[in-house]
Amino acid sequence: MDDYPLLNLFLTMMYVFLWVLWFFLLFKVVTDIFQDHSLSGWAKAAWVIFVIVLPYVGVLVYLIARGKGMGRREAKQAEDREAAFRQYVKQAARDEGGAGTGSGHVSDLAKLSELKEKGHLSQEEYEKAKEKLLA
Predict the structure, then answer these.
(1) How far apart are CA 8 and CA 39, in angstroms?
(2) Predicted structure pTM score
(3) Which of 8, 37, 47, 93 has its CA 20 to 30 A from that of 114?
(4) Which of 78, 85, 86 is CA-nearest to residue 35?
(5) How far apart are the C-alpha atoms of 113 and 73, rounded to whole Å?
(6) What are phi and psi of 102, to 5 degrees?
(7) What does each of the 135 residues of the chain score in pLDDT, given as a tens digit?
(8) In 27-65, which positions are buried (b, 16+ CB within 10 angstroms) versus exposed (e)?
């Protein structure tokens, strides 16, 4: 360790950190270019070429020119994902018989089990109905 001073170790760690940070930023910019629906295909191609040919300048210019839009698009996508998740949960609860008609798989399986316990269905009939319901 004597031939590699502590300051050089810290500088190396900083360079590695900045290198990883740079790649993260580069991938974020390229991802944002392709996810932006307001850009035409030619504009996307121009930005990608600019970022590839002059990576440091291209990324910095992109962040300066379109940085606010990146944040807005990211927030909009998060809101859309949240709304889709809430809609899915409501639909799943409705299908499972929570607040809706009770026609979901869980309620149907419970009804089948209840019929079997009461003796209205044999074990074979129960298995066939369960397989048909789960198919």
Answers:
(1) 44
(2) 0.57
(3) 93
(4) 78
(5) 49
(6) 80, 25
(7) 567 788 888 999 999 999 999 999 999 999 999 999 899 999 999 999 999 999 899 999 999 999 889 989 999 999 999 999 989 888 887 776 554 444 567 778 888 888 888 888 888 888 888 888 787
(8) eebbebbeeeeebeeeeeeebeebbeeeeeebbeebeee
